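REQUEST FORM: STRUCTURE PREDICTION
Request ID: SP-0412
Submitted by: Lab K.M.
Chain count: 1
Length (residues): 356
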Amino acid sequence: MMMGMASALERKLIVVTGKGGVGKTTVSAALGLLGARRGLRTIVVEVTGGEAGNDAAGTGRLAALLGHCEPPPHGVEVELQEGLLWGLSIDRDRVLAEWLRALGGRVPARVLTSSSSFQYLIAAAPGAREMISMVKVWELAQGRRPADRESRGKSPAEGARGYDLVVLDAPATGHALAMLRSPQTFSTVARMGPIARQSGQVRELLEDPARSAYLAVAQATEMGVTETLELRESLRRELGRELHAVVVNGALPQRFDGGELQRIASLGGGAPSGGRAAGARNGYRDAGADAVTRSAVRAAHAVHTRARTQQRQLARLRRGAGPHGSPLVLRVPFLFRGELDLEAVQRIANGLERGL
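STATUS: Completed
RESULT:
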C-alpha cells in the first residue's frame, strides 16, 4: 500500500501542484499550518516570474491566507506564525544572482553575470532558470537559510537554524513538471563541476521517497481529473515517483437520494418536466409555486447533479492505480464564502488532518 499524507508530512519537501486556479496556494497554506501544528519549523515557498506561471500577487495571497497583512518582498523569509511558520517567494532573477555569487565565491555577481560563458549557459541550457529555482528549494530542504538573513535583523543563532519542512507551492502542472525535469535536462549541458554537482543533489532529493512527496490539487471535473492522471504518469515516467495524495478541492456532498429529490420537486410544482430537453429548458412546471421556491428546487437539483458528476470523477482517480496502489484522495468541501481567510484555511487544515 502506498504511503499517504501522514508520511508525506514527515518528509523534508512536499511539492504541491495542479491545474491553475484549483486552490494550490490555499492547500499549501493549510499544509504549512499542519506542519507548524506538529512542531515543525515550516516554510511555504512559491516560484514567481516569467515562465514560472505565477505572478507577484501570489505571495501576497499566501500571506493574507495565513493572517499576514503585508505582502512580503521577493526573496525575503516572512514569519507567518511565531517560531514555526514562514513564507518565501522565489523570484527567479534574484535567485540567479544569489546562485552565481555562491558558485563564484569571491567573484562579484556583476562579473559573473557579464561573463560570456555564464551568459551562454543560462541562455542555452534547457531548464536553467527552473534548475536554479530548484537549487534554492534544495538548500532550504537541507536546512540552509538565505545568505542575506543578517540584513533583516536576524541574530546569527536564529539565522543558523534551518527548516524541518519545505512546502513548495509549485506553478501549474506543465510549468511544475519543467521544474522537476530541470536537474536531468540541465545536467546534459553541465556534466562536471559545481553545476553538475548541484544538479545531481537536486535530482536525488526529488527522486528520494524518504525525503520528498508529491501532492496534486484538483477539482472533480473531467478535465481536472484527466490532468491529474497525466501528472501521475509523468511523475512515474520521469522521476520514478508516485503521487502521495490528491486533494480534491470544492467537493460537494451528495445530500439527497431519489425519493428526497421527488419530494423536493413537488415543492416546486411537481416532478421534473418530462423529457430531458424540456427539463433543461424549463426546469420544473409552474403549478403556482412562488419564484423563490422554484429557484431553490432548481438549485437543489443542480447541486445534486453536480455532486453525482464529482463522484464519477473521483472514481476515475481511484482506478488504474499501478504497482504502488492508488494515491490517497482527500476531499476539501466547497466553502460558501466570498473570500478565504485564516479561519477558512484552518478549517481546511482540520479536514486534511482528519483524513490522514
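NOTES: Strands lie at 13-18, 42-48, 78-81, 85-91, 165-169, 212-219, 245-251, 328-333.
Reviewed by: T.R.
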